[in-house]
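Following up on my earlier thread - several people asked me to post the actual chain instead of describing it. Fair enough. Here it is, all 217 residues.
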Amino acid sequence: MIEIKHKESGEVLLQFEVAEFSDCKLAGAQLPFADMSGLDLSGCNFGNSDLRGVDFSNANLSGCNFHSACLRESNLENANLSKSDMTDVIMPDSILNGANLKNAILRYANLHACVMKDSDLSEADASMADFSEANLRGSNLQGTDFRGTDLRYADLTRTILTGAKLANAKLACTKMMRKKVTPGARPGTKSRKSGSVARSGAKKSTSKRSPWWKPWG
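Reply from S.P.:
Thanks for posting it. Predicted structure:
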């Protein structure tokens, strides 16, 4: 028998007369704040489930179906979500540091303000999703489909974007790289040296113009 317990109170939320969880059907399950950390849940169906605040850290969730599930403020740190279907999933303010989302489907998913540092989203379909204010610092985004995706105010510092599709993506105020500041200069101030160079570089023209009545002379 396998039991799923509340991560704080220890209350048993669900019991299974099985030896392992893989390929279990949990569509529509009510499991808020459950502790499923480190479990092998590969291939499970969590479609339309209430998974708010669930601890999925270090869990194997490869090939799972999370279609339209609610994972708001959940913990998926170092979880394996490769090839999972997360279409229309609602999971703002969740933690996905080091998560494997390679080849996952994230179309129309809400990942607003998620912390996803050093995660792998290579070849994932994240088109039309909401990644606004998400922290993707150091993540692998090779070949990721971000067409039509909201990436406003997201942190993409040190990410690998080779082959990523960004057509029609919203990129206003997106942080792509660290700002270079001249040593010794205050941010937002103009260097005197650069200003003097600009002024000295503006030379006045000394050539005499020919009178209009003597265009050839």
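The CA atoms of residues 15 and 37 lie 16 Å apart. That should answer part of your original question.
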